[in-house]
Specification:
It is a single chain. By secondary structure, this protein is α/β, with parallel strands linked by helices. The protein has two domains: 145 residues, HUPs (Rossmann fold, 3-Layer(aba) Sandwich), CATH 3.40.50; 121 residues, Rossmann fold (3-Layer(aba) Sandwich), CATH 3.40.50. The protein is 38% helix and 22% strand. The strands form two sheets. It has a ten-stranded mixed β-sheet with strand order 5-2-1-6-7-12-11-8-9-10, sandwiched between helices. The protein has a two-stranded antiparallel sheet with strand order 3-4. Helix 5 links the parallel strand 8 and strand 9. The longest helix is centred in the first third of the chain and has 28 residues. It starts with a strand and ends with a strand. About 3% of the residues have low confidence.
């Protein structure tokens, strides 16, 4: 039995993330742990809301803290209620230190992390992907399933493959965690440079590998810029897809200068995104 963790902000609880986590756990007969990141440094209120003419209002501070505590407890209770209704094996963790550090530590002992693409643990609005999600994807110790804003049924799997071992590793991890999707329509999508041929990288080996896992699989090779071709291809897709890719991890310096493919997908699309990188 796999151990799946689902991360939640109890102050901005994501119902779609909960629904997908329960759906995945139930379909894979996995144990589900709800990770409620009750970061002490993160609150629903800003400090200026507490300031009066004579200083910080202790009564307001007590009131706001109590409200946050109740909201976090309510979110966890809602998660427990839905897990019980789904007859899952589950438990709940309340992690009270820095949210990112806590979740990265939890990921060491997990087979899969499920988290909503919008999570930020900040008051201000951020562009997608948020800094929290970028840092999480860079350093997580297990594969991540980013969930969309709305719960959707998965109808097709698209594997982004470039011949690099990291892209194959992501496919292997997806196969291991989601064997129930091997009968679904699937597509292996590759983009090659203009000076390349139209063959898949290691085409004999990859086809031999993929046909052992998927019974309804198409192969697509495009020539051009990878980011542009992938975005265009996914925009034309009519089915609800889950996209699988690897190799998010890079140094902080390179992330400043070159956006990850995962970043582009998070910015342009609202569908499940499975990301795994080998260390």
């Amino acid at each position: 039995m796999n151990k799946i963790i689902a991360a939640f902000d109890g102050l901005k609880f994501s119902t779609p993330n909960m629904e997908m986590a329960i759906q995945v756990a139930k379909s894979t007969n996995a144990h589900l742990t709800g990770i409620f990141l009750d970061d002490r440094t993160y609150t629903s209120y800003r400090i200026y809301e507490l300031v009066l003419e004579d200083g910080v209002s202790e009564s307001k501070l007590k009131q706001y803290r109590s409200r946050d505590t109740q909201n976090r407890l309510h979110a966890a209770a809602l998660f427990e209620e839905h897990c019980q209704a789904a007859q899952l094996e589950f438990n709940v963790h309340h992690d009270k230190n820095v949210a990112l550090q806590e979740l990265l530590h939890e990921s060491i002992f997990s087979d899969l992390l499920i988290v909503n693409r919008n999570e930020s643990f900040t008051h201000h609005e951020e562009k997608y992907p948020t800094r929290f999600i970028r840092d999480l994807l860079s350093d997580t110790q297990c594969p991540v399933l980013l969930t969309p804003e709305n719960t959707i049924p998965i109808e097709k799997i698209i594997f982004l493959y470039d011949g690099d071992p990291a892209s194959v590793y992501a496919i292997k991890m997806f196969n291991h965690l989601f064997p129930q999707y091997q009968s679904y329509p699937a597509e292996l999508f590759t983009v090659k440079r203009p000076d390349s041929n139209v063959h898949l990288p290691d085409h004999k080996l990859v086809k031999e590998f993929m046909k052992r896992h998927y019974t309804h699989l198409d192969y697509t090779v495009k020539i051009g810029d990878a980011s542009e071709e992938i975005v265009n291809h996914l925009q034309a897709e009519t089915q609800h897809c889950c996209v699988v890719l690897g190799a998010y991890r890079r140094t902080m310096m390179s992330r400043w200068f070159r956006s990850s493919m995962a970043d582009a997908l998070i910015q342009h699309f609202d569908f499940p995104l499975f990301i795994a990188h080998n260390k």
